[in-house]
Automatic annotation (TrEMBL), chains A, B:
Lineage: Bacteria, Pseudomonadati, Deferribacterota, Deferribacteres, Deferribacterales
BP GO annotations: protoporphyrinogen IX biosynthetic process
Protein's UniProt name: Uroporphyrinogen decarboxylase
Binding partners and assembly: Homodimer.
InterPro entries, per database record: UROD/MetE-like_sf, Uroporphyrinogen_deCO2ase_HemE, Uroporphyrinogen_deCOase
HAMAP family hit by this protein: URO_D
Signal peptide: none
Family stated for the protein in its record: Belongs to the uroporphyrinogen decarboxylase family.
Protein's organism: Mucispirillum schaedleri ASF457
Length: 335, 335
């Protein structure tokens, strides 16, 4: 079977017959085949066992027909070897949050190959088996720092806000360290065969826009310019920052469902391939509704330099799998 | 002491020497005087005991010098008498969520005076004592419906999304009922002496903009046009809807900290008094930082038809009270 390079064409702004489609968190708890694997191992064990991580990465490609695979892992995986005590319950918990300069200085040097060998082993296995592009990924430094300072998930992530306001030197030391590590982590993913990279900035949206621009965006830009594969930046709840984000020179921008693709494209200067942006809740409705919403996104995507069909955020755990399959079929013109 | 009508002037777009200042959740857990009262009663008891609700409403005016008082209550208070089993632990929990047409039809008729007599009694007590305007408030129907369908707080409020997508008739019946109740609830607050009304749409921001416009905004507009006092609408995370929200003809719009007042004013057609928008996290920093951020908001507020200084969301529980006092002094030109 010929290699399906739709994703790469769309990221390269080449005309495609239809948009490529993959879905954030497409390998996950909504799939019975995934749950079967998860019965045997914890989430962290799954991430760290290449054969199993490879198997679940392949599931949405083989079973649902996604046009791209995304490495099965978690954004917090690379912070464990630098000295962060990480567990999942199922939300992430960090028993030794990073809040002072001493905490930052205590973080270990990051050696991607020796610190996260399972990640690269998984990629090695996948590239041999896939006939669609493999997307590598990382968390963005700010989002990683949100968890590292808070020690858990949060609505307000007050600890990082306090650090930014009261000890900006500690904040910048941490961001610099995470930026360096992220570049190494991602460069190695590309070296092992990832054809594109997505960086998730899940919590960027908690900031006043001026602070995002001054204190966070420079690190995003540095990483985006250090990666040799097509790069997609996704800042959830980030539309307020589009005037800043449009300064990136990367291939794609992920768009959440809280703004239309049409408007996002205008705000971003019509220079990126846009990836998104179906509300994941739509997958809890019926076929007629899924089709209607998907077609809106497809039609608005045609106004953009490139369009990669995706959700505006990850698939939710209780999503009916037949609706996910139907959505993919709609984008492919099969339903 | 002369009545301080700065808030009303700012809502009326009259020139004022400085912006009036009050802070969302200004009566709350960060104040030792509030905690003293709360030692004796539960949160719900406090809301329902006029003498105590009156006392805590007055605290930020008397102790901190706020230019307006806001009725101490909770947005969920008026849904209890219509048949919703409500408790706080401290987050709201509803043991009988509303999900079907039968559930909606089972809701009681709402008689504000007999169903929430303590609210109006609190207002009666307050208007005799205050020499600043008293702001009444309610939740917006969509935000109330989010809690009523989910039965609790949530990040995604999937139940209301499913209702909107799969049984829109049930959704609209619920919204219609809540809109009627809210109008009655608020009209009576004005009758009892509230000088302005704020409606909180805390969860409106979870929707795709087209759905907000079609399915939620008409109810907001109806309420805003049914209230005879100056009306402030606050949709948290609502900047993506400004193109719709600017169709309101009310006095003020609340602005969160995720957009600048300057940009919000342009997007809203420069026709409203804007209320906001300091990031509540700034109150965890130092005086120099608080002053810098406050002055930015004050200066951007001068570009708006009117400006009411406030936070972009409620004061957080652990906020240092001396920083709140300092912020109010800065806005008043006293620090």
């Amino acid at each position: 079977m010929a290699f399906n390079d739709l994703l790469l064409k769309a990221l390269n702004k080449e005309k495609t017959e239809r948009p490529p489609v993959w879905l954030m968190r497409q390998a996950g708890r909504y799939m019975p085949e995934y749950m079967e694997v998860r019965k045997k191992v914890s989430f962290l064990e799954l991430c760290k066992t290449p054969e199993l991580a490879c198997a679940v990465t392949l599931q949405p490609v083989d079973i649902l027909g996604a046009d791209a695979a995304i490495l099965f892992s978690d954004i917090l995986i690379p912070i464990e070897p630098i000295g962060v005590n990480l567990s999942f319950n199922p939300a992430p918990v960090i028993s030794n949050p990073v809040r002072t300069m001493e905490d930052v200085n205590r973080l270990n040097h990051f050696n991607p190959e020796s610190d996260a060998p399972f990640v690269y082993k998984t990629i090695d296995l996948l590239v041999k088996k896939l006939n669609v592009p493999l997307i590598g990924f990382s968390g963005a430094p700010f989002t990683l720092a949100c968890y590292m300072t808070e020690g858990a998930g949060s609505k307000s992530f007050l600890e990082i806000r306090k650090m930014m306001l009261n000890t900006p030197d500690v904040f910048h030391s941490l961001m610099k360290k995470l930026t360096e590590d992220t570049i190494k982590y991602l460069q190695n993913q590309v070296k092992h065969g990832c054809a594109a990279i997505q960086m998730f900035d899940t919590w960027a949206g908690i900031l006043p826009p001026a602070e995002y621009k001054e204190m966070v965006f420079p690190y995003v830009k540095e990483i985006s310019e250090s990666i040799s594969a097509p790069f997609i930046y996704f800042a959830k709840d980030g539309s307020a920052y589009f005037d800043t984000i449009k300064e990136l020179n990367c291939a794609g921008i992920g768009i959440d469902w809280k703004i239309s693709l049409k408007e996002a494209n205008v705000m971003l200067g019509s220079k990126f391939s846009l990836q998104g942006n179906l509300d994941p809740a739509i997958l809890f409705s019926n076929k007629a509704s899924i089709k209607k919403y998907a077609e809106t996104a497809i039609n608005e995507g045609k106004l953009c330099p490139g369009h990669i069909f995706n959700l505006g955020h990850g698939i939710m755990p209780a999503t009916p799998v037949e609706n996910v399959k139907y959505l993919i079929d709609v984008v492919k013109g099969l339903a």
